[in-house]
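Thread: "does anyone have the structure for this chain?"

Original post by V.I.:
We have the sequence but no experimental structure in hand. Need at least a predicted one for the grant figures.
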Amino acid sequence: MNASNNCLLGAAVLVLAGCASEPRPPEAFPKLLDPQPLIVVAELDAGEYLPPLPDPPAKPGYVMIKFDPPPHWVRAEVQQTIYASKEVPQVSYAGTTSHSGALPMSPDPQLAFFLTDGRQYILRRYGYKRLLTKLDGSLLLPIWDKQVAPWLQCSVLELREEFDVEQVRETLKARDPSYAPARESPELFRAVAGGFMPRYAIDVRRLAAYLRNHPPPVNGTECK
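Reply from O.Q.:
Generated one for you, tokens below.
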């Protein structure tokens, strides 16, 4: 075999190895053994629908109506790990549910909240938060509510730092004057023309350092 053929064979092996390294989407909504939280910065892309979930047990005197479409899978390309109890692959596929189904997702990296048993993944329902990019490239999680996220402990609010919209690359859209969290916790917001903007954000590096010593909950939380 000559040198050119050797090169072609080597290239083919590399291509096949690259294809083999990427996992496949789930064929059904995952059933996890010993689910643990996983939080990453990732690019998310909605995929195809999965088989419908089984109907819940019937209750006498009640009519059960499903408003959700079937679950679907989401591809996640991880940019940064914020919290993990197990090794995190660069690319993973997760099952998820939503009221609106498999709609296009933002092309920008988001803070994404998963459950995993190390083999399969579930993206929590609406389990992703938009991030802001500071001029130095670091990432911020803007605080739009005293409940920073349903999948983080309430104490992470203590990590907040005041920021200004001129410090970030993205353009933030103000929430309208009727935005309930701004009425309930006005100290977390700035009043601007047309409504409210967040006064605080959490640097995701501080969040990652905090979660190393204070693991996030498996189940959701409610901050009052």
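V.I.: this helps a lot. The first strand starts at residue 36 and ends at 49.
O.Q.: and The radius of gyration is 21 Å.
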